[in-house]
Amino acid sequence: MKFTIDSSALADAVAWAARSLPARPTAPVLAGLLLEATQTSLTLSGFDLEVSAQISLDADVEEPGRVLVSGRLLADIARALPHMPVTIATDGPRVNVECGSSRFTLLTLPVEDYPSLPAMPTVSGLIDGPTFTSAIGQVAIAAGRDETLPALTGIRLEIEGDTLTLAATDRYRLAVREIPWKPEQSSISATALILGRTLNETAKAMTSATEVELAFSSRDGAVESLVGFSGAGRSTTTRLIDGEFPKYRSLFPDDSATSAQIEKAAFIDAVKRVSLVAERNTPIRLAFSSEGLVLEAGTGDEAQASESVDAQVTGEEILIAFNPQYLVDGLNAVVGDYVSMTFVSSSKPAVLTGMLTADAKPDSSYRYLLMPVRMAG
User: Is the four-CA dihedral 291, 352, 179, 206 of positive or negative sign?
Assistant: First the structure.
């Protein structure tokens, strides 16, 4: 095998394919990256038996072939190469990498022992690329990281006709986004639970895709074992999480006692300033009244901070406390220059939605529910 390719294109492709490589592979070949050169293109593949990643790109191929090399090492080398064409060629049990005056020799892994990548399921529909990336980012912030609760580390996909709903929760907050998509069958209905970290990385890597293909097979309203995404020359498959996602819809209150509309940028800045005096895992307090919003942190002999922010408050006065980072995450995720917050009481979760302008209707296609923190006393 021998081919020449731009070093920047190679580095980008290797980084994408290597994303699926396990940190502690159960077999040496699973640490490898498979390079397959045809007459006109190069395909790189990575697979850890759970997640597969594959990318194809143009290359000047002199000798077609396939080879398996250490993915991490190739990624480090590709990232460090000068911005020049790079030539990769096999030489018996070795692979030579040449770029300008740089020379590297890598040992190969037994390509015959490499597992076959799972076949991409049948394409079930198309999602607008930028919308897909944005929506995954909005919900991924709420996905749990505690691997002892695997169902909470996932993002739930709910497909009903031409609407796709994404939801994630770590028990302290819940993010839900609804987006349109183009299903192959208008009557389609299915659910799936996908590891949030995997889905978020996939969405980020497909930012340049005009449309993303969603591929799966379903039975009895549930996706079967595997789901695939492809776009911008990249494709990935991932096995589903086996677990029961919480019945989250009932968590959203039907009505509220208080609502407030606040300029988002000013709100975020105030939260960050006031939380500077808050000890780790210590909440900040928010007091909503007809006079606006007052943020406070610290009590007694501790360092203290307070700041007032203009807010249009309707309904009962309320004093409520939140984890400041969780609050900032939600504020950053809502779309628009203003945020709407609704409350039932100081002990019940608040709901954040975005507003394009001060007098616009809140956009309920994205909702961020945040649990309050119990205040001392």
Answer: positive
The CA R_g of the chain, rounded to the nearest whole Å, is 25
CB 71 within 8 A of CB 31: yes
Q: What six digits make up the tokens of 86? A: 């790079």
**Residue 276: how many CB atoms within 10 A of its CB?**
11
Please tell me the pTM assigned to this model.
0.91
Stretch (H or E) spanning 58? strand 51-58
Residues 6+ apart with CB under 8 A from 170: 142, 143, 144, 145, 146, 152
Question: What 3-state DSSP class applies to 298?
Answer: coil
* CB-based contact 195:152 (threshold 8 Å): no
Residue carrying structure tokens 């995404």:
229
3-state secondary structure of 91: strand
Q: What are the pLDDT digits (tens) for 3-20?
A: 999 999 999 999 989 887
Q: What share of the chain is helix, strand, coil (3-state, %, to 5)?
A: 20, 45, 30
Distances from the Cα of 148 to the Cα of 154, 169, 170, angstroms? 12, 14, 12
The H or E element spanning position 164 is strand 163-169
Query: pLDDT per residue over 155-198, tens digit each?
Result: 999 999 999 999 999 999 999 999 999 999 888 999 999 999 99
